[in-house]
Amino acid sequence: MTETPQKHPHRLTLTDVEAIARTAHATQTDKAGRPYTEHLRAVAEGVRTRGGDDEQIAAAWLHDAVEDDALSEQWLEDAPLSRRTKDVVRALTKRPGEPPEAYAQRILTTPGALLVKEADLAHNADPSRLAALDEPTRKRLTEKYARMRALLGLVGE
């Protein structure tokens, strides 16, 4: 019996990945005090509306899991996910002390990662989300997101 490259009999489904991400981030809130899972849902939906595939949508649900210590690097390595999904999650995981330029370069050289990061930045920079923050935080984050968009070549949007 041969299997198609698209499906793997033991892979997690998107429903499974969403449930894992929601459980892993269940106690987390964003900078405005909202449940962090709202951000994950928005990024996954942003990937979907930008034409992303299931591997990218899975990565969107998991994009902050390792960075936030919600799931371990070992969990990611052992998880029944495609290599591409794992590579995108790793590309989007910021490393302590890593310069933004190195982070952006890793995203640009990892197939599928840029679309997920674009959706992440779009939600992070959403004016309604930023409006809930104090002015210094809003200003700092707006500048940070604009710089990352420029490093990734996401201009004029």
UniProtKB/TrEMBL annotation:
Q: Which organism is it from?
A: Streptomyces shaanxiensis
Name the SUPFAM superfamilies for this protein.
HD-domain/PDEase-like
Recorded hits in Pfam families, A to Z, give: HD_4 (PF13328)
Protein name as annotated: HD domain-containing protein
